Amino acid sequence: MKNVNWTRRDVGRLAAAGLIGAQFSRGQRRQITAREVVERIRQNVGVPWRSRTSDTFKWGDPDAPVTGITCTFMSTFSLLRRSAAAGNSFIISHEPTFWSADDGAADFRDDPLFDRKMAFIEQSRLVVFRFHDHWHARKPDGISAGWNRRMGWETYYSPEKRSYEIPETTLEALARDMQQKLKVRSARMIGDPKMKVTRVAHCGHYIAQAMRAAPDADVVVGGEVREWETVEYIRDAVALGQRKGAIILPHEGGEEAGMEECARWLQSFVTEVGVRFIASGDPFWIPRA
Fold first, then answer.
1. pLDDT (tens digit, 9 = 90+) per residue, 109-137?
2. pTM (2 d.p.)
3. What are the pLDDT digits (tens) for 235-262?
4. 55: domain CATH number?
5. Residues facing 59 on adjacent strands
6. Do residues 118 and 196 both lie within one domain?
7. How many Å apart are CA 4 and CA 130, to the nearest integer?
8. Strand, coil or helix: 233
9. How many C-beta neighbours within 10 Å does residue 275 have?
10. Which pLDDT belongs to residue 105?
11. Within this chain, do residues 59 and 96 fall inside the same structural domain, yes or no?
12. Poorest-confidence range of 38-42, 104-108, 160-164, 240-244?
């Protein structure tokens, strides 16, 4: 092949004419490591980084070059396989990888499922980082921002009332709309399906959050709630004649859209590799009646 000595002017002219291909552009990209990506996250998240946090590297070599980034709600085995198949070696997961709040792998060392999942991580040279505390602490909360965007409810939220004022609908129609937009199949309702609703509030995971949200809302929406707490609280409110309802989502339904938001955010300052959201998905199926 004939040698060509490119000048800066040559490159500028070719770029302006659209004659420099993607291959040339990719050749100019330097490799980036997972540790460097996380350092940029720390610089851009907008809140002080906590000394005690669950937001740490969990598995893999943080200094290995990243081939691509997956943002997801939970690093399930299926998600890890799909990420590897997509060519993404760095997984940023909102929730744990190994079935406990602190990814306490020591609790599962003798479990065959743990062994298979860990073997896949090692063989595929994946790196897993958990991004939970600081994404919630961001202003606005990154998970809530993603949920609002997915639902199309950005303009409906009232910070003073800590609730949404939505166009009038019914409890059943609202549940169906959430199920469709949040891409879940296991949303459940408490209350009269035909009840008219306009005020909706998040009730988090715990009964104290539900008790704060319920008085000023027609419907509370929760994910990963304790059924013997929040569910029974709303059911008793209905039995006492109050116009109340609840929509109970799987954990993913309440928070997965927030990691789609995370991917969108990361793309603004990580340009060396591709960044994409891959859903972990609703784990539940509801059989047809």
1. 789 999 999 999 999 999 999 999 999 99
2. 0.87
3. 999 999 999 999 999 999 989 999 999 9
4. 3.40.1390.30
5. 128
6. no
7. 47
8. helix
9. 24
10. 63
11. yes
12. 104-108
H or E segment at 18?
Answer: none
Q: Write down the pLDDT at residue 204.
A: 87
Burial label, 132 (beta-carbon count in 10 A; 0-12, 13-18, 19+): middle
* Residue 31 Rama label (left phi>0; alpha psi -120 to 50; beta): beta
Q: How far is CA 203 from CA 54, 211, 220, 234, in A?
A: 23, 8, 6, 11
Q: Do the Cβ atoms of 20 and 11 come closer than 8 Å?
A: yes
* Number of Cβ within a 10 Å radius of residue 186: 15
Structure tokens at 223: 């994910």
Non-local (6+) Cβ contacts of 260 within 8 A are 71, 146, 150, 277, 279
Which residue bears the tokens 């988090």? 204
- Look at residue 160 in the predicted model and tell me its pLDDT: 77
Number of domains in the chain: 2
Tally Cβ neighbours within 10 Å of residue 147: 25
Model confidence pLDDT, tens digit, residues 212-242: 999 999 999 999 999 999 999 999 999 999 9
User: Domain range holding 188?
Assistant: 152-253
Mean pLDDT of 100-108: 75
Q: Tokens 């339904």 — which residue?
A: 253
My answer on whether 117 and 173 are in the same domain is: no
| Stretch (H or E) spanning 197 | strand 196-204
49 domain residue, yes or no: yes
73 closest CA partner among 261, 260, 256, 277: 256
Scan for tokens 């990506």, then name that residue: 37
CB 220, CB 234: distance < 8 Å: yes
Size of the chain in residues: 289
The three-state secondary structure class of 52 is coil
Q: Is residue 12 part of a domain?
A: no
What is the token pair recorded at 142? Answer: 């990154």
